[in-house]
Amino acid sequence: MAYDYAFVHLKFTIPLAGILTLISYPLLTRRHWYQTAILIAIAVVSTIPWDSYLIRHDVWTYPPDAIIGPTFWSIPAEELFFFVIQTYNTSLLYQLLNKPLLHAEYLLSPSWIAAGLHRVIQVVILDLALVGFLMVSNGGPGTYMGMILCWVCPFALLTWSLGGLFMITLPWTSTVIPIVLPTLYLWIVDEMALGRGTWAIESETKLGVTVWGSLEVEEAVFFLATNVLIVLGLGAIDNALAIADAFPDAFESAPECPSPTTLIQALLMPWSEERKGRIRGVQEAVERLCRKSRSFYLASSTFTGRLRIDLVLLYSYCRMADDLIDEPPEGLDTSAWIDRLTGHLDLVYKPRKDTTPTLQADMVRAYIDSEFPASARSALSLLPTSLLPPEPLYLLLEGFKTDSKFRPIEKGDYFPIANEDHLREYASQVAGTVGELCLSLISHHSSVRLDPAHIGQVAAAARRMGIALQFVNIARDIAVDAVLGRVYLPTTWLADEGLTPAQLVETITKEPASDKAQNVKQERLRIMEKLRRKLLGEAFAIYVESRPAMNWLPDESRRPMIVAVESYMEIGRVLLERNDPSFEVVMGRPSRATVPKPRRLKVALRALLEA
Fold it and tell me: What are its GO cellular component terms (predicted)?
């Protein structure tokens, strides 16, 4: 009995697995572990017959003094463990790099080039399979390489055919890196093992070419090919999961761990123009979030499945409506767009009694197409209204009406946020409602229902937390809003400091003409910073009060929701850390406080660990 092969695991594969597990544990969900388990099972079952054949036919061997002893079908226990640990490590790396992505947005191939590349690679795989067959048939030095190709290519062709187009659309960092890094690592491990004689390839069956040192070209191809198979397998599963998540019309439910039958049905689902349109709408929603709210998009990656898609679609609707109010397309004022948004909700939630569901859907679609610009249509069409109560959406529009009441100075200025009560009412309408809507989606999609005894408290806390987040948003965007002629700081707060809303707008938007005016501006900026901190103090007080109720959320949604809240509250912390007023306007564009990406990731990780 010897331990050379076992030491390979103890020194190299197991420590790597431990590191990846520690990093992955707070980030990955049951779905990710389910995928990994599927891949490990497939890897073990598909590799055992092939590996056993090679050993029994003396293609490669293990010296008796290098292995512990127990075997299965002539395969040493250490080798069987290698099937598991390699698949595990590569799978975790792939999932970590894919975690930020919303896979549903990658379901449509971007161009004919991608389709052509997909077919070319299919042909290449078939050619390699033929080469492998010829090498095995001829025997001799090409036997081992031929056996690798004959074993790998059928699995590669199957998984590439099922998920290749999807994988082409993914960022290369989420597909190439999970192949390259594990392969390089295993090449180094294999080179040392071959050099030590832990395992050996019979000279009669190998080409005799080394990549470097003792690393035989066959071994290099083997580890590259197996990591490719793992990533292709995960890609095919992710493709199926994304389809099941994205299309409630085809899959009534999308469980966190769907059955293999469901995955196969998803991969074989026929595509219609309507379904392609839905994916284009999801793509537009993600693009809108990436432009308008990087913090929320990052936080959304901690959600999974259909819940994540619906949250993205909800937030996209809110941002779209906000854009129509803040920057109305030419020809209509903000009140007209609010009327049209209200008309859309009326059609959805107040249908005529004599209309069928199909006719109702056609009427809503026709209204959207005729009354809204193309950039807004997908956000309206894909809003998951069947899962959302109407009252918060109507209240959201009431908040937008407040936005429309602001009048610029040249038109007889009017600032509707007269006092703190008005501020809280406005924040409740535009953000407290969003918290309530998010809770509705969480309640629908969670496999564990919220305790009825806590529903009221959680709903109230969701609304209150929305107010806190809106206060942070207002505190950050004082300069942004001033450029639009809006001041959300209560007029009474400003009056207590000897300022008016009009003076605040003037301070932000106009350059001082003299030293005296510059001194006045600096004093006003100091006052504005003081009021910003006062508003942030209110925000954090509400946050502290509401935060404990989040612990009653189901586990699968509690941790992601805490990440979303903490990511946004971190903006407030960044503002409080600044020692000088920051209300710069450069080239007509006001600056906004942002949280650096490494810090956002740190906040998200801390929230996941503490939740």
Answer: membrane
